[in-house]
Amino acid sequence: MRIPQSLSGDGRLYLHDLTVGQRFTTRSHTLTKEEIVAFARLYDPQGFHLDEAEAENSLFEGLAASGWHTAAISMRLLVESGPRLAGGLVGTSGELSWPRPTRPGDTLHVETEVLEIRPSQSKPDRGIVAVRNLTLKQNGDVAQSFAVRLLVPQKP
Amino acid sequence: MRIPQSLSGDGRLYLHDLTVGQRFTTRSHTLTKEEIVAFARLYDPQGFHLDEAEAENSLFEGLAASGWHTAAISMRLLVESGPRLAGGLVGTSGELSWPRPTRPGDTLHVETEVLEIRPSQSKPDRGIVAVRNLTLKQNGDVAQSFAVRLLVPQKP
Q1: Which residues of A touch B59 (CB under 8 A)?
Q2: Distance between A48 CA and the closest CA of chain B, angstroms
Q3: If DSSP states are collapsed to H, E and C, what string results for A95-143?
Q4: Per the CB < 8 Å rule, is A44 touching B95?
Q5: B142 interfaces chain A, CB cutoff of 8 Å
Q6: pLDDT tens, A77-95?
């Protein structure tokens, strides 16, 4: 269990509870083909996310989850079992990449590392925390990397 | 209608059909509160995406869609009415930001601009096209910016 005890009493982490290099790990989630197709129907209806035969003849060379599906699952894992930040997980911007496709049967979890902590100049009640969230497969391959700036409150 | 005729016969755009500065515009989609809450329940179950009263007391100061919901809707708009690229819309990485929250009742559409076109050195059958996708609200405010590198096939 790598999530530190909060010093803040309510179990949530404020800006001063975070340190550069701190790491967090979520639980994991295994994707089914049905889940991949259902997400794609709603948000990314392209053949390589919907149909195995079409996917074979695409750049993906096989059925692949929408990158946004990988992103959405990563978010759910973080909300449910990632760092318990005071104020919640609120990202403003970041660098997103999908080095390889997520496939049916892949088991994903997210590892977070704190990269930088910066109190806000203009708003003394908060700071910006840069973290890297890596969404990893069962074999350690990176399915998604999101280096994101989060808004984190100062302890009142 | 700003989508150019393809020179390629099948109505799909190959690498040589694209030019820097080219623009595309999607149709629009209006979000309901119910949609925002349903997406959040599945992928981003935080109070400020689920409950109006909780949202009032959060950094968002009112119910806000998950950024991943804005991203997913933007993708659907692009797939259904954005640039009809040969090979589909396949992004590999990019810079993502949410300058302001998406709210219930907001009407979103996506405007795409081609920023850079680069044939692949290692794989002569494709190239990398950098585009900026801006997800805009009814009043022109930017809900999301995604500057993304897309894989686009060369004409066979």
Answers
A1: 87-88, 90, 126, 151, 153
A2: 9
A3: EEECCCCCCCCCEEEEEEEEEEEEECCCCCCEEEEEEEEEEECCCCCEE
A4: no
A5: no
A6: 999 999 999 999 999 999 9
Given pLDDT bands bounded at 50, 70 and 90, which one contains residue B24? Answer: very high
In this prediction the ipTM stands at 0.93
Please give the residue range of the domain that contains residue B80.
15-153
How many Å lie between the alpha carbon of A4 and the closest alpha carbon of chain B? Answer: 21
Instruction: Please give the single-letter amino acid code of residue A75.
Output: M
Residue of B nearest to A85 (CA): B46
Question: How far, in Å, CA of B40 to CA of B18, rounded?
Answer: 36
CB atoms within 10 A of CB A128: 17
Q: A7 lies in a domain?
A: no
Count of domains observed in chain B:
1
A113 occurs within a structural domain = yes
Indicate yes or no: CB of A72 within 8 angstroms of CB of B96.
Answer: no
Per-residue 3-state assignment (H helix, E strand, C coil) for A14-46: CHHHCCCCCEEEEEEEECCHHHHHHHHHHHCCC
Q: Return the structure tokens found at A130.
A: 């840069």
User: A30 and A107 in contact (C-beta within 8 Å)?
Assistant: yes
Tokens representing residue A17 in the block: 């509870």
Nearest to A98, CA basis, from A128, A137, A142, A57: A142
The whole model's pTM is what? 0.93
Chain A closest-CA separation from residue B91 CA (Å) = 8
Q: How far apart are CA A20 and CA A117, in angstroms?
A: 7
Residue contact B80–A44, C-beta within 8 A:
no
Q: What CATH number is attached to the domain comprising A61?
A: 3.10.129.10
Amino acid at B36: I
